[in-house]
Amino acid sequence: MSDGKLRSRDLTSVAAAEAAHSSSAFAGAQYLMGLQLFVRLATFSTNAVAFRLAGSSAFGVASIKLELLLSTILFLSRESIRNALLRTEPAEDKRRPSVREQRIINATLVSICVGGLLAGALYMVYGGDSQSSIPYYSESIAVYVLAAWIELLVEPLYVLSRSRVL
Questions:
Q1: What is the distance between the alpha carbons of residues 65 and 71, in angstroms, rounded to a whole number?
Q2: Which of 50, 107, 108, 165 is most buried, by CB atoms within 10 Å?
Q3: Each residue of 119-131: pLDDT tens digit?
């Protein structure tokens, strides 16, 4: 075979590989768009069913007061520490934590303590509201406060993984 035929065959195989790669990327994009549409429709229908079953006052309390409680606990206890720690340089050895990474883990433990104290204080403030018309109001506040604290327990792992990626 001549050198020209080999080069044209190589170019043809490269073009075929690029076409297969772009078609698989397009198929992946279609899959992600379909998944996004499904998630949006599922969220909308779940909210519509919850609104029908729970009533407007209970749904309003859950979507406003309880979400505000959760967001307040999480934001005030972790965002300042998270933003400060994510501005550090990544470590060289990824297999085991370095001294720098151990310091990051130790610093994120502060957010767990602050979050626990803040959750207890906000439980007393929100639990003191007299919402006698809404059944299980104080229990739902306790569940949200506990969920916020459990989410804060994962904070050292999140910050460590983000510091290793960046």
A1: 10
A2: 108
A3: 999 888 887 666 5
